[in-house]
Amino acid sequence: MELIESHLIDKSICPVARTAQVLSGKWTILIIRDLATGVKRFNQLERSLQGISPKTLSERLRSLEEEGIISRRTFAEAPPRVEYSLTEKGYDLVPVIDSMRNYGKKWLCDDK
Amino acid sequence: MELIESHLIDKSICPVARTAQVLSGKWTILIIRDLATGVKRFNQLERSLQGISPKTLSERLRSLEEEGIISRRTFAEAPPRVEYSLTEKGYDLVPVIDSMRNYGKKWLCDDK
């Protein structure tokens, strides 16, 4: 009985908690935000995300790629060109981020 | 310069990250969900949130009250009646939770 109950609770919590988890990484939201306006190269992202180290950016991009949120395309040029874009799974996060941002702005953060 | 940059980044992240934080507690989402349909008494919540201990429920309710997400009203009856409801700050979380749930259901959780 207890097993069934905690299973039901987990089922109900899971989607919200997992989404919160995906969006909790410091740079994740900003990367998705940048890619929501179109395909970007590595150094465009690096310039936009002021303060991020190339190592951290690489790691975040790889992890978002593994989660299926962004896709990476390499072009055989010299020097090689690498472009990043949102997948459908990534684009679907944009309205979620917007609703969380609106809530946070209204209720949780200073409007400085 | 670095200070300014990290301040800008924090400002951009803050609202989303703080909202994710508010919603990350295990029972929070379910309590808000229950109260979204109207005022509830303590034991109604306890029955609805199968598996929660009275102690945990008290703690969660107190913490949500401190965050201004729910309000608590006591009636001088015998036995005393205590009712909980969402504040405006609490109601505003419902669409956020819904968008996160929809995303999570579509992309992150099994549809069992």
TrEMBL record, chains A, B:
Keyword Transcription regulation carried by entry: yes
Taxonomy, superkingdom: Bacteria
Keyword Electron transport annotated: no
InterPro entries: ArsR-like_HTH, HTH_HxlR, WH-like_DNA-bd_sf, WH_DNA-bd_sf
Annotated SUPFAM superfamilies: Winged helix' DNA-binding domain (SSF46785)
PROSITE patterns given in the database record: HTH_HXLR
Gene3D superfamilies, sorted: Winged helix-like DNA-binding domain superfamily/Winged helix DNA-binding domain
CDD domains to which the protein is assigned, alphabetical: HTH_ARSR (cd00090)
Molecular function as annotated in GO: DNA binding
Keywords for the protein's UniProt record, in alphabetical order: DNA-binding, Transcription, Transcription regulation
Residue intervals of the HTH hxlR-type domain: 14-112
Name of this chain's protein: Transcriptional regulator
Species assigned in the record: Dictyobacter aurantiacus
